[in-house]
Write a structure and sequence with these properties.
heterodimer, A: 444 residues, alpha/beta, D-Maltodextrin-Binding Protein, domain 2, 2 domains, 4-stranded mixed beta sheet, 6 strands, elongated, B: 317 residues, Rossmann fold, Alpha-Beta Plaits, 6-stranded mixed beta sheet, 4-stranded antiparallel beta sheet, 14 strands
Chain lengths: 444, 317
Amino acid sequence: MSKIGLIIKREIKSKLTNKTFLIMTFLAPLLITGFLGFIIKMSMDDKTQQKVLVVDDTKHTTQLLQGNDYITFYNTDLKLDDAIDKLIKEDYTCVLNIFENTVGGGAGAVKLFYKKSPGLFFQENIKNQLEKIFQEEKLKANNIDPNVINSSKEKIKLITQKVDENGFKKDDSNLGFLGFLVGALMFIFIMMYGMMVFRSVMEEKTNRIIEVIVSSVKPFELMIGKIIGVALLGIIQFLIMGVISLILTTLLSTIFLKDINKEFAKFNSQQELVKKMGTNVDFTKLDNYQDKIEVFDLLKKMDALPVQLIVICFILYFIGGYLFYSSLMAAIGSAVDSEADSQQFLTPVMIPLMAGYFIAIKSMTNPDSSVAYWASFVPFTSPIVMMSRLNANTPIWELLLSLGLLYASFILTTYLAAKIYRTGILMYGKKVSWKEIGKWLFYK
Amino acid sequence: MSILEIKNVSKKYGNHVALNNVSINIAEKSVFGLLGPNGAGKTSLIRIINQITGPDSGEVLFRGEKLQYKHISKIGYLPEERGLYKKMPVGEQAMYLAQLKGLSKAEAKKRLNFWFEKFDMQSWWKKKVDELSKGMQQKVQFIVTILHEPELIILDEPFSGFDPVNAQLIKNEILELRKNGATIVFSTHNMGSVEELCDSIALINKSEKILDGTVKEIRKLHRTNTYKVAFKGNVMGFTNALWTGGEVLEKITEDDINYFTIKINKAINSSQMLQAVLPHCELVSFQEVVPSMNDIFIMKVSNNNPQELGTKSNFTE
């Protein structure tokens, strides 16, 4: 086996047997999918079956309440106390008490007795229905046709469409947040693996094993082996995390989110209905249409995302950006004796990386601002910023130029880093300065 | 025949001259001592031989061939600043380092088994390095250095950190390795071990070689015409007889025997001196005092930089 191969193998093995690394690899996707699942679950309706016993003191409101898939209303003539008794003894979930004098002034109240805490959406549903019923009642009392009011309500949807000289393009507005997520992921990856290279280099120096190794292999081979080893490790970790996330998401969605496709289909048919009927549609008949419009719109747009392009670019930019930064990190790791001394050297390397991150935040709202545009060509920031700006309409030449610049400068940084590394790893007990490091570049 | 010829090697780090026009020949199958105070340039020279750095000018020949990458597998190096991966098991680590030197996996395993058995350390194989004592770690490092059976073995301060038992073990190994045909270069401050082990030495001071040759020659060359004489009889008579020929450096009298250390003038030789004193005393013993390597080291280095002596350097370790 070639020497670089041996170095790569050792680098990977030493990390794979490291407990912290393993825990991170398996725990991170668990936490992330758990968190995402939680958020999605929260944004979905509460689908607990509700059997509501209605004690209607007004006597005419109950028949106007409309049940749905999971809410059923049962009218009863029982007194409130008996109804509550019945709630406790039988399998009803709530008792709704509508007071006789509910309608009157501007505000009224009804009371809900429950056994198990009723969900927020369920409460909203009852509240909205009652508000509508009492409002129509009042309108009728004043001889106003509620249909007039309904038809006067206007819902405006803003439909965005990108155009250029070649005609209509895929709509890419409102995708800034997703772009930022990809950019942020890139930032985390470059930072994480760059630091891993830095630590690994410093470990060999502080362990004093470095001189034994460089008497067997060229320092450049050692540095490159290390950088490639950590990169492969990164890819392995990424794949493990990816597979775990995929399994978890599938599991979660089959267990908890099995209705999402049904919902999506329902949303689509509702959207068709809205298009057909225009403003005449009764929105209250559309099941939570307004709540979902944003989420599903985004989902539909995500469908239009150039996923393959993003994945390929992510890998290319990760390799380029990682190599660019990790060679700098290796040089720094070689120059210092302890992590405490490293801060003054790490900071200047971190700043452009952070800058890329902040520009990515900025480009969330304006992906074509001139700062974001230029930053997506500068190798220090391009991996993060270009990934956050990337969409189906990004010109290929921009990508090629940006990647070309990145890879060309990685060759330059690796060359410089190798020179610093070669000298740095053998320097002990000396507080190094930037000036000193500059001198190393010219040692033969 | 020389295994290594260092020709006019110079090396600078910035403005600091580490080596200035150093030339050394190292004979095959010998033990060669590379001596010099701290900061003299020994480690710089060793790093050039190991191709960790290159010389600014001059060249190094390995068996008459310009030193190049392929020679790495023929050289074994134990640096002064030596360590191991703390969290990596000993056996795995030794395997890794052996394979880096070009041994196949099977061969590395076979040889490691042999050495681990020889030094009675089979039980360490699965232990992590930070569970071993410093002396144990150094044994591992020594084994790794010689495992690929290098023709040239370079040991930088091999005895520092070893207890006397392990130091002796290493000394024996060094002699054994020479017997099997290897050439050993070692740098040390320990002059005792130089006299014990070295065939030849080179002394480097302030980036320059100031002395080299076989240990015997060097000691002969630095004779100071000093003798130890033991005799019975009249002290006055002895001193008077000697009077013109030399001076007495030390006088001790024990049980009727006088032990004198005398330095005789260059104009006369030891026979002439003896002829002069014999009529006045009964000679018990007579022996030349040859300077030790330690004396020569101190003398040479302090001539070279008298005011720095004893501050920067540490000769007796």
